[in-house]
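Handout, section B. The chain below has 94 residues.
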Amino acid sequence: MSDYIPSVVQVIPYEDYTIDVYFDDGKIVCYNAKTDMSPKLFERICSKDIFLERCTVLNGTLAWDLAGGHNESACIDIDPFVLYELKRSEERIA
């Protein structure tokens, strides 16, 4: 069993509600917030402006900083282990 603890270093959100998630070991995955997130959570970020502008990295994982100021108690974050288990994807930017 590996002792690796995945850490997200960069996220790039897209208008189709997907996010390229970059890990510290070089792995890249594509997270689909629209289909992978519970409807109640997605409801809080479904505005494209909030989705795109509040998407960030907090505490080593993908998060949406809903209140601003990087307040961990006012954000939606996704477990980095859940993200890391997603299928490896190709980088979409040129």
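Note. The radius of gyration is 13 Å. Compare this with the example in section A.
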